[in-house]
C-alpha cells in the first residue's frame, strides 16, 4: 500500500509539472501604440588602420568626406585626396517608447563600401532620421567590432564580421515622440501570438483581478481595456498592475523543420495518429576508371583511351515497419520516432511522409 501511494504521488507530481507554466501578461502581449521607432542615418567612420574604403571604387565616400571637411572650414575643392582610413557606413537604431530628450540609445554600424574592417574606428556625428524625415537622435563615438581580419601575401584569415559594429549608448535623443499616455482611457492589449484561448484567459484574469468588466475580448489577438469603469485612475499604474498577472498560455501544435541545419522542433501538443513507418536508402554509384592502351615501342599503332564504367545499385536493408502509437503525448511521439533508429535528416523525410498521409496533427512548417 505504501509503495502504491508513493507511485500515485510521483504520477501526480509529474502530471502537475507537465502542465503549461504560468506566464506574465507582459511577456505575451504589448500595449497597442506603445512601441519603438526605427531610425537610420548615413555617416563616416574614421581612424581606421588602412582598412577603409578605396575612394576610386566608392565615390560617395569621397563626396561625404569633402562635405564634412567643408562644414568644418577646410577647403578641399580641386584637391586629390585618397585616405584609406575612412569608411562610409549606415547607422541604425531603435528609439524606444517614451524616450526623453537627452537619453542615450544603442546604435549599430555597417559598412556599405569596400572597407575591410571597422575595428578601431570612430563614428563622426551622424543624424538619425525616422520615417517622417525628422531627426530624432544624433550618433557619435568609438565603434566596437567583434570581427577581425588579417591577411598576407599568401594567406588571409577572417573571424566574425569585421565590417559591422555597434556603439553602446552611442546616440543621444534630440526629439521626443508626441504620445500622451496619461490621458488614455481606452487601451488595447495585442497578443504577440494570437490565440482565442489565451486571449480569453487574459480577459478573465484582468476582470477577476479588478472585480469589474474592465477587459473585453475582441478577437484572437486583441483584448480591449476600458479604464473609465474604474473612475479616475492612472493608466500607467493600471497597465503596471495588469502586465504582472499570471496566466497559462495556449498555442497551436507545430512541427518546425530547418532544412539547412537539420533541426526539428515539436510543440507539446503535437499528436500522431497510429501509423506504420518503413525507411530505407537506395544508393547509386557510378565510377569512371578509364584505361590507356598504348602500342609497343616503334610500332605503327597509336595511344587510345578506353573508357571503363562501373555502375552499381545498393539498397540498405532499412528498418522494416515500425509502429508509432496514435494520439500519444510528445514524449511518446519522440520515443516512437527514436525507435526507428534513423538520423535527423532522415527523420525530416519521415515526418514529411507522415504529414502527407494525414497522420500528423500539427502545423507543419519547413524553413
UniProtKB/TrEMBL annotation:
Subcellular location as annotated: Bacterial flagellum basal body
Main location: other
UniProt xrefs under InterPro entries: Flag_FlgI
Key words of the record: Bacterial flagellum, Cell projection, Cilium, Flagellum, Periplasm, Signal
GO annotations of cellular component type: bacterial-type flagellum basal body, distal rod, P ring; outer membrane-bounded periplasmic space
GO biological process: bacterial-type flagellum-dependent cell motility
Molecular-function GO term, any one: structural molecule activity
Signal peptide extent: 1-20
Quaternary structure annotation from Swiss-Prot or TrEMBL: The basal body constitutes a major portion of the flagellar organelle and consists of four rings (L,P,S, and M) mounted on a central rod.
Family: Belongs to the FlgI family.
Job description of the protein: Assembles around the rod to form the L-ring and probably protects the motor/basal body from shearing forces during rotation.
Protein name: Flagellar P-ring protein
Source organism of this protein record: Paracoccus sulfuroxidans
Phylogenetic lineage: Bacteria, Pseudomonadati, Pseudomonadota, Alphaproteobacteria, Rhodobacterales
Gene, per the UniProt record: flgI
Amino acid at each position: 500500500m505504501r509503495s502504491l501511494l508513493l507511485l500515485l504521488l510521483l504520477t501526480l507530481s509529474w502530471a502537475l509539472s507537465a502542465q503549461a507554466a504560468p506566464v506574465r501578461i507582459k511577456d505575451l502581449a504589448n500595449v497597442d501604440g506603445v512601441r519603438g521607432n526605427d531610425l537610420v542615418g548615413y555617416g563616416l567612420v574614421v581612424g581606421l588602420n588602412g582598412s577603409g574604403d578605396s575612394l576610386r571604387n566608392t565615390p560617395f565616400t569621397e563626396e561625404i568626406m569633402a562635405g564634412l571637411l567643408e562644414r568644418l572650414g577646410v577647403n578641399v575643392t580641386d584637391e586629390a585626396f585618397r585616405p584609406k582610413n575612412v569608411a562610409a557606413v549606415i547607422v541604425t537604431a531603435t528609439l524606444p517608447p517614451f524616450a526623453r530628450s537627452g537619453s542615450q540609445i544603442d546604435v549599430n554600424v555597417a559598412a556599405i563600401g569596400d572597407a575591410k574592417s571597422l575595428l578601431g574606428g570612430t563614428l563622426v556625428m551622424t543624424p538619425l532620421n525616422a520615417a517622417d524625415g525628422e531627426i530624432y537622435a544624433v550618433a557619435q563615438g568609438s565603434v566596437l567590432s567583434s570581427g577581425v581580419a588579417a591577411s598576407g601575401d599568401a594567406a588571409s584569415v577572417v573571424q566574425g564580421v569585421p565590417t559591422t559594429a555597434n556603439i553602446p549608448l552611442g546616440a543621444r535623443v534630440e526629439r521626443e515622440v508626441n504620445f500622451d499616455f496619461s490621458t488614455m482611457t481606452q487601451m488595447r492589449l495585442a497578443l504577440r501570438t494570437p490565440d482565442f484561448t489565451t486571449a480569453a484567459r487574459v480577459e478573465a484574469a484582468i476582470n477577476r483581478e479588478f472585480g469589474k468588466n474592465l477587459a473585453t475580448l475582441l478577437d484572437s489577438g486583441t483584448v480591449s481595456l476600458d479604464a473609465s469603469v474604474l473612475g479616475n485612475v492612472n493608466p500607467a499604474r493600471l497597465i503596471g498592475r495588469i502586465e504582472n498577472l499570471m496566466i497559462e498560455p495556449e498555442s497551436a501544435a507545430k512541427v518546425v523543420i530547418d532544412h539547412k541545419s537539420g533541426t526539428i522542433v515539436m510543440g507539446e501538443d503535437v499528436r500522431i495518429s497510429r501509423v506504420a513507418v518503413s525507411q530505407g536508402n537506395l544508393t547509386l554509384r557510378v565510377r569512371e576508371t578509364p584505361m590507356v592502351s598504348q602500342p609497343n615501342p616503334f610500332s605503327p599503332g597509336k595511344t587510345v583511351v578506353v573508357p571503363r564504367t562501373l555502375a552499381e545499385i545498393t539498397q540498405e536493408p532499412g528498418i522494416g515497419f515500425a509502429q508509432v502509437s496514435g494520439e500519444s503525448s510528445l514524449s511518446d511521439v519522440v520515443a516512437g520516432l527514436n525507435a526507428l533508429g534513423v538520423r535527423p535528416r532522415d527523420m525530416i523525410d519521415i515526418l514529411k511522409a507522415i504529414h502527407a498521409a494525414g497522420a500528423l496533427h500539427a502545423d507543419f512548417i519547413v524553413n
